[in-house]
């Protein structure tokens, strides 16, 4: 395999694997920019994957080719509603946000697997038939070298993920809502004195976080595994959390970090086709994305500054 052939394989795979991480990491950015730590991204992705696959299986005959896209929307709403548990616990009841996030992770997989067992009588769902199609971008695909690398055999969800990252940057840094969001995450008391409803902004941010994580989970399940089981998400939410931190709580930075982790996954999957790497033990290649996640955080976590009020419940009138 030549270098060019390798790039033609690795780059599209990297973008495809990164798309679910981009959605989820940007969801985390919204939540933590408002001052609410959300380590429950894994559980929210699980819920999105479960609902997306379930809807796809039950309504494929009804909606045909539109099924995967409608399934993603349904999964988005399901995870947004599920994230309200975290919002109520951490914002209204001022519970420890880390503990609440852990509970979301445990509850999400428990509800999903129990439901699968009840509905299908086994530990995983059937395989879906309606998948997100790949397509070639007209004109752009004909550009030498770059065309086949970036604009051929693309998932629509990958383009959507990049679009969401750009829109999130605009919303957070160029709109009044984004200014309120950042002020609540940095100094909620000052924001409150300026008439900003801290509780409402934080609720909205957590719900956005759940919605985007739901999209990420459903996109991963529909494009990669094509079914749902106990190992469908398998740490993708924690990778997205790492991408958010690695990206310095910035939408574009989170997208870049997600692409890095997507590359690690693409490398692990495509290793049998890559000279030299194909000779390495398979187990090393499968743990590569998780090892890179740990190394990235270990080398970077001390240099990243989270929003100052991140993880701190706000009590009106108290400093």
Instruction: Please give the alpha-carbon distance between the first and last residues.
Output: 62 Å
Total number of domains: 1
Provide the residue-averaged pLDDT. 91
Could you give the count of β-strands? 2
User: What is the C-level CATH assignment?
Assistant: Mainly Alpha
Anisotropy-based shape: globular
Largest sheet: 2 strands, antiparallel
Strand and helix order: HHHHEHEHHHHHHH
In the CATH hierarchy, what is the architecture at level 2? Orthogonal Bundle
Approximately how much beta-strand content do the residues carry?
under 5%
Fold-level CATH name? ABC transporter involved in vitamin B12 uptake, BtuC
Helix content: 55-70%
Low-confidence stretches: none
Strand-pairing-aware structural class: mainly alpha
- Tell me the strand order in the biggest sheet: 1-2
Q: Any idea what the radius of gyration is? A: 20 Å
What is the count of DSSP helices, taking H or I runs of 4+ residues?
12
Can you describe this structure in just a few lines?
The chain is mostly helical. The protein contains 12 helices and 2 strands.
Describe this structure in words.
The chain is mainly α. The chain has one domain (3-303): ABC transporter involved in vitamin B12 uptake, BtuC, CATH 1.10.3470. It is built from twelve helices and two strands, in the order H-H-H-H-E-H-E-H-H-H-H-H-H-H. Strands 1-2 form a two-stranded antiparallel sheet. The protein is globular. The model has no long low-confidence stretch (mean pLDDT 91).
